[in-house]
Amino acid sequence: MELKISVRTVGEVTILDVAGELDLYTVPRLDEGLRTAATASRPLLVVNLSGVAYIDSTALKILTDHQKRIRALHGEIAIVAGQPAIAKIFKITGLDKILCVVATEREALEKVKVDRPAKS
């Protein structure tokens, strides 16, 4: 299945809408999309995986790597795992305790806007 990534903004938040399968072959596109989207001095980013049918460990690693990079810039990232199978992967791996994983885009937007104070 082809991977599609589109980017949009809601206020100061950049949203990556991801659809398809995230695996060893498609994850470089996710990595590139995250790098491009997180260029602000204090990046606020939502990765919407509602359209993702499959995610493997390489994609999980990319998401955790980008979380570290974004937080080092005093930004925030939230993952929308609307599909029960995708949410289950985050839960089974314990990444739901490390990453901000929520069920809806609305929750994600609230999390990235309020979880981190602005850099002073």
Describe this structure in words.
The protein has a five-stranded mixed β-sheet, with helices on both faces. The protein has one domain (11-114): Transcription Regulator spoIIAA (2-Layer Sandwich), CATH 3.30.750. By secondary structure, it is α/β, with parallel strands linked by helices. It is built from four helices and five strands. The N and C termini lie far apart (44 Å). Helix content is 39%, strand content 30%.
Provide tags for this entry.
120 residues, alpha/beta, five-stranded mixed sheet, 4 helices, 5 strands, globular
Could you give a quick summary of the protein structure above?
This protein is of the alpha/beta class and 120 residues long.
Give the helices and strands as they follow along the chain: EEHEHEHEH
What's the tally of helices? 4
Distance from N terminus to C terminus (CA atoms, Å) equals 44 Å
The unreliable regions are none
CATH superfamily caption? STAS domain
What strand line-up does the widest sheet have?
Answer: 1-2-3-4-5
Q: What is the number of strand segments?
A: 5
| Rg for CA atoms | 13 Å
CATH topology (level 3) name: Transcription Regulator spoIIAA
The dominant shape is globular
Q: Helix/strand/pairing class, anyone?
A: alpha/beta
Query: What percentage of amino acids are in beta strands?
Result: 25-35%
Helix amount: 25-40%
The residue-averaged pLDDT reads 91
Q: What would CATH call the architecture? A: 2-Layer Sandwich
CATH class: Alpha Beta
Number of domains in the coordinates? 1
Main beta sheet? 5 strands, mixed
